[in-house]
Structures are given as C-alpha cells and as structure tokens.
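Dear colleagues,

For the upcoming journal club I promised to circulate an example of a predicted protein-ligand complex. I picked one with S-adenosylmethionine because it came up in last month's discussion. The inputs are reproduced below in full, followed by the predicted structure.
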Amino acid sequence: MINTDPDAPRPISSDWLTLRRPADEAARQASLPLLAELQAFLTAEEVPDGDEQPVRIFDLGAGTGANQAWLAPQLNATQPQLKQQWTLIDHDPALLEHTMSEPSIDGVIGTEAVVAGIEDLEQILRGDTEAAGHLRFVTCSALLDLLTTTQLDTLCAALAESHTAALFSLSVTGTMTIEPADPLDDSLNKAFNLHQNRGGRAGARGVDLTQQFLADAGFTVTTVDTPWELRGKHTALIERFLSDRADAVLEEEPSLAEDLNQWLARRAEQAAAGSLRLTIGHRDLLALPPRQ
Ligand SMILES: C[S@@+](CC[C@H](N)C(=O)[O-])C[C@H]1O[C@@H](n2cnc3c(N)ncnc32)[C@H](O)[C@@H]1O
C-alpha cells in the first residue's frame, strides 16, 4: 500500500548521502576539539581490563556509514591502541546494506549493522551493559533535526539512564545565507524550516533541545558550529540541495510555486556559473555523563 501520510518518515536516498560526504567531512574539521575531549574522557574511564577492551561505538541513523568512515580513522590516528567495535543502527535496511561493502578501517575490529529505531536504543544499550563492562559512546551525524521531539526525549533518556557519552554531529540549525542574496531567500528559508517541523519533528531546534535535556540530566555539554561552506566547486551538491529545498518549500507553501520556480531558475543559473556561496548552519554536540 502506498503511504500517503505527508508526516511519515521519508527514505533518505543513498546518492544524496554520497553527494554530501565531502562537505560533511570538511565541516567536521571544526569539531576535532570535541573529539579530543571525548578521547580524554574515555582514557580517564576506569573499566575492568580497560587496556584490552575495545571501545563500543553505537552510530544512530548510520545510513550508508559516513559517520564511521570519518570518525573511526580520526579516533585511530590519535589512539591507535584503542580498538573500535561499531554497531551501525538505522531503520532503513536498504541504506545499511551499503555499509557492508565499505572498505576496512584501521583500528576497527568489528562492525555490525542493526535495523532498529531510536526507541530501541535503550534496550540495545541495556543488553550491551549486561554483556560486559567497557568503554562506549553513542554517536550520530545529520540525524537530530530529523527526529520528533518525542524521539529526542527517548534518545536523551536512554543516554541518561545508561550514563553513556554522546557525540552528535552535523545537526541542522536552520540558518542559511546565500551570496549573492536574493529577495526571496528569507521567506523561502522560513517556509523550509516550518516544513522541517512537520509531524512533531524537532527540525532546527533539535540540537538545542538535546543540549538542554542532557545538561538538565547532569551531562557536561559542549557544542561547536560546523557549517557547510559551499562554493563553486560544489556545483552538484549545491544544485541538489537547492532543488530538494524547493520541493520542501512547495509542499509547505504551495502558493509560493511561481516565485519558487523563478527563484530556482535564477539560483540554478548562478550555481552552474559557479558564482554561488552558501553557508548552511550545522552544530556538533558532545555530552559527557557525570562520573558515577
Ligand atoms: C540524513 S541521513 C544521515 C545518514 C548518515 N549518518 C550520514 O551522515 O550520512 C539520516 C539517517 O537517519 C536514519 N533515520 C531517520 N530517522 C530514524 C529513526 N527514527 N531511527 C533510526 N534511523 C533513523 C535515516 O534512515 C538516515 O539513514
């Protein structure tokens, strides 16, 4: 049966995830200090047989594995002695399928793919704790803004309950500037951000809500801005980003159709000429639980 609920989760296409990888990786350079903090936290943890235990890493909304592909080598570069055991979690089995053909990464001793949703995290972490005491953290990239506020609460509650650290990357913050500016940019951005809130989704508030929840639960939370800086060389990504954005705006505000078509035509011409500069807000968040 065709799902006609406009608020239902939509599959993310693997070619979009491939297209955005280089921009994500460039943006994440700004979050290296968060990674260093996380590593210092893990190093200071006292665990039985800590020297031999791998760090267990749970990647939520793993998609085609881009978060692991970036994060695992970064961890290995500075802590090669710490072996990594990854669990890639996503509710879309078709995307997880791609992770199985990813090349092996130094320092990663095992990767399993699990088809599951946010609501399953608590049980996954509980089962993991029963298996053995060990180092671990939960991570995600480009996910928080897609979750409903209820799912964010569930996610944060699972972390608080299990005293698990988290590194959440590349959450959309709702800001976007395009140079040269266009008179329609602001109204289209507003309509787009409203679209991101459909069906109770957190949208641009996702990262702030997560920060608030975890700080209230006693976590030490640090954030850093990791915007995409897209220039002429990113033409394919810019064109796709703008046309997907226009589709979302049209759904939110059908009365803007004519303006939107003209805006997109202007923007497509500028993108093809390599004359657009886009800054799209993202933020990374590190949450370290209180010591027990
Ligand atoms: C924008 S993609 C990011 C994928 C990957 N982390 C990356 O950076 O390329 C968001 C991913 O989250 C998954 N996802 C969205 N909502 C989810 C949920 N409630 N439970 C599990 N996975 C979810 C989607 O299937 C998709 O793979």
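Two points we might discuss: Strands lie at 55-60, 84-90, 108-115, 136-141, 165-179, 220-225, 228-230, 277-288. The chain has a mean pLDDT of 92.

See you all on Thursday,
B. R.
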